[in-house]
């Protein structure tokens, strides 16, 4: 409507802030040759490309450069860069191409005009394609292969970067680039890198690359021969995928077991356990775990494996620990032997428990209970050597009979001390007494009895008889030191030096102290609950 009245139309446009309207009017003014007015309205519209274009047309390059530097408008910078290039102002063209992020144009000018100081930086700022173009330039230029290697690497072309590293003998770059290779890399390239590291004695890097290249057996041989430690990460790289081409199930199992064997050789028992387990060989996995000495994991592994052999292996291991002071370990030993149906081994353990009850706690009642369980287990066991089984049963039966006699004598002492002492005297005549009952305990009961009755000579005679029967005996271990002192004092005899030194060193048990020790461990384990 206002087109026929230019002044009114300009006033209308000036009153409105619509950028599109201002740009339209600027274009109209430019078409009529009104450049100053056009520049004014292009500036109002913030159309920097058009502003720069008009200033360039008018020959005002300084103003155009000022606008580009202030606004950083990419289109404007690119246009100005082209203008400077047309005028052979190369440095300025490179600068504005860089501001426009038109790195390809900037790199092209650097190559054509020898601005190598800027070329590398521009290439690193550009796209992979720009880096590749610059890399090709440096590759052909003598003494600049290191820059080409860096750019090929940065652009993601590892194969080209490594190949050039080999040709240019850029070994530092080779080490850097090889660390980023994965299974997608060219197998021949991986092999070549691996061979290079082997030749230079960098065996860990060689193994890593061989593992990536699926050369499992070669990698494992190097690990074994050159003592390259297999950690968790390397072990996983050496483990073939279940669906890996060219490797069937049996081959995969062989590789897993080979990894485990190398780990065993290196002392990596937990990792060996893991690989043996993945190979399905739980027996070897358990053997590896046993060598680690990790009791908690051994108990756990035995529980989840549910194999008889593993139960027995775990129980055998637990017996090597200080099970005498840990009821939980004793419980696990009994439980594992029971689950493993190793009744002969369980019988042997109960027999050992009986000896502990006697030697450490003087608890013959519990020892008798343990031997009873041992006899029951051995009776049910299916040993291949039946004659040996019968001999063991007979030996257990004889031990139980001897212990029972001593237990009976101790119990009878409360009601009939003299009869109890007579039973002890008869018991001392048994040929195999010391296989079941400690001779010192029998003499100890008799000596304490004589001392209570003030039969000092009988007590001293029993001590001498005990010393003759057990030459290296610690008398104070079986008889209370106060009782021993009372006997020698009553007979006006000097106390033997062996007894004196024993008392000084902390011995002097007898029944009173023995009862205290016994009370501390009572009810730690009840024999017979687990079978």
TrEMBL record:
Residues 1-336 form the IF140/IFT172/WDR19 TPR domain. One of its GO terms (cellular component) is axoneme. One of its GO terms (biological process) is intraciliary retrograde transport. Gene3D superfamilies: 1.25.40.470. Keywords: Cell projection, Cilium, Flagellum, Repeat, WD repeat. Residues 344-467 form the IF140 C-terminal TPR domain. SUPFAM superfamilies: TPR-like. It is found in: Cell projection, Cilium. Its main location: other. It comes from the Eukaryota. This is Intraflagellar transport protein 140.
